[in-house]
Amino acid sequence: xxxxxxxxxxxxxxxxxxGANQPRETAKREIEREATTTxxxxxxxxxxxxxxxxxEVHNPEGILYxxxxxxxxxxxxxxxAKLVAEFLAGRDVVHVVASPLQRAQQTAEPIGATFxxxxxxxxxxxxxxxxxxxxxxxxxxxxxxxxxxxxxxxNPLRPSWGEPYxxxxxxxxxxxxxARAAAAGHEAVCVSHQLPIWTLRRFLEGKPMWHDPRxxxxxLASLTSLVFRGExxxxxxxxxxxxxxxxxxxxx
Length: 252
What we know:
It comes from Saccharopolyspora kobensis. Residues 1-30 are annotated as: Disordered. The protein has a single domain (8-129, 164-239), classed as 3-Layer(aba) Sandwich (Rossmann fold). 29% of the residues lie in helices and 15% in strands. It is built from six helices and six strands; from the N terminus they run H-H-E-H-E-H-E-H-E-H-E-E. Helix 3 runs parallel beside helix 4 (102-115) and helix 5 (165-182) crosses helix 6 (194-204). The longest helix has 18 residues, at 165-182.
């Protein structure tokens, strides 16, 4: 797998330098350039798999909802999904797949409609398991301030409070390979969640999978795009068609 300079043009920026000030047309040109720099357009061996994070969720309680049922997109989240569908219009998307959770399925709907394809479901795209699910985890007034929860935090490298990073990376890599095969020579969109997408990216870039959650580059409705030549990953691109969001927002 070639991974030299996989994110140079877009992804080496800090969260404060990107997103909100990135015009949508500029972002569209950047991802177009990133997705075609290494391989020529029309190349039958070229496949792009876009990993999209779902849109904003209606979460007035501010809890970490994880895999809990019933968490739908907010009005803003629905608009974000439509913006990404418009952003991708005109590209060669032939396969759309989503996590089974409601917010991911809702995010995928306008994209499937834009390209007139049915939205498939892949369990491997689901949100990561988390032992703080259903609790508030904001700094100062959340579950993290309670001593009874501290034993869950003993190993941040695994992590001890949830699904192992390596397990997340392996299942997401499996989802990526299935999408690549389904869209061979074209493009696919996989709608998933922040931690699974970010873990996959760090795994592919050969970086440690443990990290500071405040530094994740995976905004709501963002696209992390894997460019393949055949089975070889040749580039990773990142854009925020719906603008930047704060990675510290609970349950986003």
